[in-house]
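Entry 14. Ran structure prediction on the chain below.
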Amino acid sequence: MATIHSAHDGPTPSSPQHSAKARVRELQLAVCDELEAAVESENNCVSIRSHEIADRGVRSRVAAENSVPAVQTLTNSATGGIEPADIATATAAVLDLNMQVALADGLEVAGRVIVERLIQHLKLDRVAFAWRRPTGACSLIAVSGLTRFDRRSELVELLHGAANEAVARQSDGSWPPLMAANRHSLIAHRKLVETSRVEATASYRLTTGVKQPWELSSRTLGVLLVTGSRAAVHDPANVRFLTTAAKCLSATLELMARAEGGFVRRQVTRFRRAISRRSLALIAMCVIGVAALMAAPWPYRISCRCVVEPMQRRFVVAPHDGLIEMSLVQPGDVVRSGQPLARMDAREVRWELAGLEADRRQAMQQRDTSLTRGELAKSELARLEVEQLDAKLELLRRRASLLELQAPLDGVVLSGSLDKLSSAPVKTGQVLFEIAPLDHLRVEVSTPAEDYRHVKDGAPVELRFEGRLNELRTGTLTRVRPRSEIRDSADVFVAEVEMDNPDQSLRPGQRGSAVVIGSSHPLAWNLFHKAADRVRQWLPF
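Output, structure tokens:
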């Protein structure tokens, strides 16, 4: 097997990686001593242990499952008839891989180094590295040949399942299994082989070197997954190498994971590594600039809805019961004071006038006749009847003078289309027309109740009306009504703005938007004080 090559220029004693390299070199010296003892043992005992050559792959596998130390695993392989040169090559490759992992910048980089080095060294189809998170589930760190991968893809889910299965079994596994006694709980391994259309797969646990008294077996830190041809996956040399590499890499990766810390610390470290000092200075300047901007005073702007209403309005009502004969104006017409608006049917009034005048003449004749005969009582009764008829005639003549409805002031007819009410009866006091002047209007601004305390009389207001959104009108609040109202299903306080309308471009009922400009506050207060108020309402104190 070929050695994994790497640069041998080690860091200086002041380098942050000096301790890792020193530890690796001490391990190399220890391995060399063990190798010398192993070779001497091979020369003396080769005849006695020749029967172990046939099943040396099985013995190596059993040694891996019983957590034999990494160096001793390769040493025991030498006693199985393996050439000392092959043992030295494999040991050097494992130590070289461990050194590359120790020099990696973080767990993710270390995972990519492991899978890429192993795929080159062992000639497998795919190598994956999964690390066990504090939650207990394995998270895929790196896959050979892929710099990025979709965690929701089918392949990643299969690899996750195989890794979690190895953790649950607390032992390495492979499919097809090497031994009949090791076929249990390999459903995920089998599914990975069948779905990925590979001949075999195997999982190797990365376990901690310290076993607690209350634990039945060593705690699993991560899992190495390999797939490929059955000859490559089950090759005794590859099995020995991966078993030894898993045991040797466990301590290094455990220290690296502890140094990285939790999720927040990993993200901060990754962010710090991703940016340069110049970028960090630029970000600091931006943060300072934003903080200064948030502390700067800005006028508090309150967005509201508004509606145009007339300053005064007059209603033209039916003066008496009767029929509408004709309507002379339509809503929207501009009228002058005294201009006829409609006429009521006069036939009934004329008929009543004619009857009353005839009754009056008869009563006067009766009075004169009684006076001539000297019948004073009858004469007095006739006189009183004449006075009664005169009062009724006066009322009818007044009604006749009011048959034509006139505009009470200059303005615009807001409502009162009587086309559909021609010849229809109306009652006394029924509203027929609404007229209002448009040269001076009132804008009612609906300010939200939560901003009521920030709205004061005399505050400037910016107004935009529908149909004329490109025209900005300004004004000041003349009065804020003290009582809240419900408008458009919202609790609001109505503030009034008086404004001139010489061109009569605004009409009563026209809606728009308004911005009330309040006192100045820091920009941060303007943006976030409502959210802070809501949070304060949720708090129990």
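The chain has three domains: 18-274, 314-345+403-435, 437-538. Will compare against last week's run tomorrow.
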